[in-house]
Amino acid sequence: MSRNEKRRMGIYVVTGIVLVAVVAVLSVAMLKKRDSKNAQAQAANPSYMDENGGEYIAAFLKDMTDSTITVDIAEFITDDNTERIKELKLSEEDMPDGYYIYNPDEETVTWKLDGQTIYTFIDWNGDFTGSDYPEEYTTTDAAEFQKYIGTYEDSQPGMPFFFQIEDGMVKVILEKQFA
User: Which residue, 111, 125, 165, 173, is CA-closest to 145?
Assistant: First the structure.
């Protein structure tokens, strides 16, 4: 092998190493960005706190499979969020029922579901409870929840649901009755 061929071969090897390093750095950066996005979504102002102090994220359902749910995260602002009300310059007229849903852009995120995910929703028509009046219904059966979502026009609920997320996994999906 001539000296020029060895030099060319060395350049190819160094170039390959640099390329692999760049791809690795970009991959790590993309993963961190995705994780950061999920963390920001989770860290956003808690949209709802239950009586036990559990924090939930408000989001509109966009798509669901047996193992994932895709949502558009929104900010659910209540009368208690005085700082945020000031920032957005909201008035009482903007919040006639005591809340405001702030969703300036549609940006979706996908979370994982498992057999332990708890779905609590309002059975408006008695399809799940047999009741003549709207009742809260809880299940861990994703198929039941999907059937319920199908009762909405175009299978798209107009109001957000509330989600408890741990490590990218949905622990609880909660539907609250709005005024």
Answer: 173
